[in-house]
């Protein structure tokens, strides 16, 4: 499974990249606006830090506008993936962009029928939002199972990019289902490392070692 970080914050991206487990980055207009920086400059910084897919989202909602923005983003760097909303005009644009060899990430997916349409349009990634579904008392992970099953049934090449992840269990469940990618905020990446028994065990190993170090010390 690939791990993407869902942020436009440079420090978080740096920290996640340093961990050696980061495969890519997703951004969205809300995340970018939080940073208060010029998006083009921000993109250049991100692209210099991570050698993997970096999603940049269009803000147009009409076919021509989406194509214009998408081509501009794609021209910036080979790692750019253009994020397009799951609306009719968006999927029409995805079909055209796919024919041009521009990779797309279809965002704001909340149903299996939407995911099926995105695959038919030739999307590179589909982004179902699990956390936002959970927020409205609908099982987000159930949607992931359905999409993975549908894509397997017809051998669609569109990758399932689980988005709106809120906690480590979302990641584990997505991995068990066989989703291709999880994009998550830094705090979730951080939590994946934690287990209280690891901390307790390590503390015990180190304190036991201290007791015997006069006899066994290999390090001075
Ligand atoms: C997807 O690419 C989105 O950026 C993101 O995962 C949305 O997550 P949220 O529901 O936490 O805003």
UniProtKB/TrEMBL annotation:
<dbReference type="GO" id="GO:0016832">
    <property type="term" value="F:aldehyde-lyase activity"/>
</dbReference>
<keyword id="KW-0963">Cytoplasm</keyword>
<protein>
    <recommendedName>
        <fullName>Probable transaldolase</fullName>
        <ecNumber>2.2.1.2</ecNumber>
    </recommendedName>
</protein>
<dbReference type="GO" id="GO:0005737">
    <property type="term" value="C:cytoplasm"/>
</dbReference>
<keyword id="KW-0570">Pentose shunt</keyword>
<comment type="pathway">
    <text>Carbohydrate degradation; pentose phosphate pathway; D-glyceraldehyde 3-phosphate and beta-D-fructose 6-phosphate from D-ribose 5-phosphate and D-xylulose 5-phosphate (non-oxidative stage): step 2/3.</text>
</comment>
<dbReference type="InterPro" id="IPR022999">
    <property type="entry name" value="Transaldolase_3B"/>
</dbReference>
<dbReference type="InterPro" id="IPR004731">
    <property type="entry name" value="Transaldolase_3B/F6P_aldolase"/>
</dbReference>
<keyword id="KW-0808">Transferase</keyword>
<comment type="function">
    <text>Transaldolase is important for the balance of metabolites in the pentose-phosphate pathway.</text>
</comment>
<dbReference type="InterPro" id="IPR013785">
    <property type="entry name" value="Aldolase_TIM"/>
</dbReference>
<dbReference type="GO" id="GO:0005975">
    <property type="term" value="P:carbohydrate metabolic process"/>
</dbReference>
<dbReference type="InterPro" id="IPR033919">
    <property type="entry name" value="TSA/FSA_arc/bac"/>
</dbReference>
<keyword id="KW-0704">Schiff base</keyword>
<feature type="active site" description="Schiff-base intermediate with substrate">
    <location>
        <position position="83"/>
    </location>
</feature>
<dbReference type="GO" id="GO:0004801">
    <property type="term" value="F:transaldolase activity"/>
</dbReference>
<dbReference type="GO" id="GO:0042182">
    <property type="term" value="P:ketone catabolic process"/>
</dbReference>
<dbReference type="GO" id="GO:0006098">
    <property type="term" value="P:pentose-phosphate shunt"/>
</dbReference>
<comment type="similarity">
    <text>Belongs to the transaldolase family. Type 3B subfamily.</text>
</comment>
<dbReference type="InterPro" id="IPR018225">
    <property type="entry name" value="Transaldolase_AS"/>
</dbReference>
<dbReference type="Pfam" id="PF00923">
    <property type="entry name" value="TAL_FSA"/>
</dbReference>
<dbReference type="InterPro" id="IPR001585">
    <property type="entry name" value="TAL/FSA"/>
</dbReference>
């Amino acid at each position: 499974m690939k791990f993407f970080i869902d942020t436009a914050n440079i420090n978080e991206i740096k920290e996640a990249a340093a961990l050696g487990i980061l495969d890519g980055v997703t951004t969205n207009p809300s995340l970018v606006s939080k940073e208060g920086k010029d998006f083009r400059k921000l993109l250049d910084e991100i692209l210099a830090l991570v050698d993997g897919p970096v999603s940049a989202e269009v803000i147009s909602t009409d076919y021509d506008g989406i194509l214009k923005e998408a081509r501009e983003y794609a021209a910036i760097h080979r790692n750019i993936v253009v994020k397009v909303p799951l609306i009719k005009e968006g999927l029409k644009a995805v079909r055209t962009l796919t024919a041009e060899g521009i990779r797309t990430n279809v965002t704001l997916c909340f149903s299996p029928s939407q995911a099926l349409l995105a695959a038919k349009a030739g999307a590179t990634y589909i982004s179902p939002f699990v956390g936002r579904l959970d927020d409205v008392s609908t099982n987000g992970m159930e949607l992931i199972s359905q999409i993975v099953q549908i894509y397997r049934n017809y051998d669609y090449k569109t990758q399932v990019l689980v988005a709106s992840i809120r906690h480590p269990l979302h990641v584990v469940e997505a991995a068990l289902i066989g989703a291709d990618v999880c994009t998550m905020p830094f705090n979730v990446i951080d939590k994946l490392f934690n287990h209280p028994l690891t901390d307790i065990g390590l503390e015990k190993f180190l304190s036991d070692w201290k007791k015997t170090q006069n006899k066994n010390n290999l390090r001075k």
